[in-house]
Hints:
This protein is mostly helical. Helices cover 80% and strands 1% of the residues. It contains 18 helices and two strands. Strand 1 (254-255) and strand 2 form a beta hairpin. The longest helix has 41 residues, at 276-316.
Amino acid sequence: MSKTDNISSQKPSSSVLLGAAFLMATSAIGPGFLTQSSTFTAQYGAPLIMIILLATLMDMIAQINIWSVVSASGMRAQDIANRLLPGLGVVLAVLVAIGGLAFNVGNIGGVAMGFEAMIGLDLSIGAVIAGCLGVLIFSSKNAKTIMDKVATVLAIVILIAVLAVAIHSRPPMGEVMRSMVKFRELPNMFIALTTLIGGSCGGYIAFSGAHRLLDAGVSGAENVRYARRSVFQGCSASALVRIFLFLAVLGTCMTGTSWNTVNAEQITAAANGGNPAAEVFRLAAGEIGYRLFGLCLFSAGVSSVVGAAFTSVSFLKTLHPFIFRYERQFVVGFIVCSTLMMVLIGNAAQLLIIAGALNGLILPISLGVMLVAGFRKNIVGEKYRHPVWMVAAGIVVVCLSFVSGIKAVPGILQLF
């Protein structure tokens, strides 16, 4: 008998669905997302649109499978994995928590870079303030409600800011359309695919919204359709931001059909200890664009700090009653630890690219576990039937992400 046979489910409110969708979206649209997209667009140019579209499709397939199984079962991913194979959930929880910590160090740095772009604040001071903001959110008794509202508002801020710069940069849309069929370029961009997938749905990100729905009491086979709707909303939001940012960077790197080598090199160079996405906004819209980016990066960073900390601890809290009992304190500790690591290590931009790549390597494992679990009646219950087309598409994503991850390993090692 599955957990869903023992619990009462409830029809979710639209605010809960949007909150879960935007928690996932803003977890994806973090500083790493902005840094990775800017850096790879400057490196590969218009052909990167193929990788972005492929990553978006893989993202949606992966998350609709994961959210469906989590919602139907009424169990968190680590508990599903443990039910599937004792001990597997512990391994999955540790992998996700490590990936979440790596990303959160970069997220704290992202907020600091946002402060630097907006008001010229020192990165170390900005990192400390970022950590304090995250702690304040989770110190409230209504932390999860506040988290939903913060995620929704900041996602809208990011979308508007990136769209404004994309329009201002006047990207060559004809070149983009022509590049959508340059399939010979794909093998050269495996590290970009692995990293972008990792930044969109790797590691903790794919489970953030699904676990949030469980915390809101939303589960059971009858509510799976609502979870899928939430997936579509969140993935659409993150995809729009990714495409708008790609167009903004491309418009900055190209004049008509000519590649602007100077601008592209400036953006790429900024990934090594700098702020590549900020350079895009500065080149596209001057100092006003640079300040606007600061607001965008601040918004992305704060929401991602919240999402990464919440989801990483949600993987650990069912492993021991002590963690479950003091969940809020563990989330605060997670943020404090991330802040200290950022202050000591620095170089947020490079950390974010590495974290995305590592999370991309976790995806085949976590998605593979969910696909197998979707057929286990002792996990999803007697009422739920996982669609065959979703399983088939999920297997393709597992294979693609596994192959691209293996081929990307040499490039990932060079990032270190």
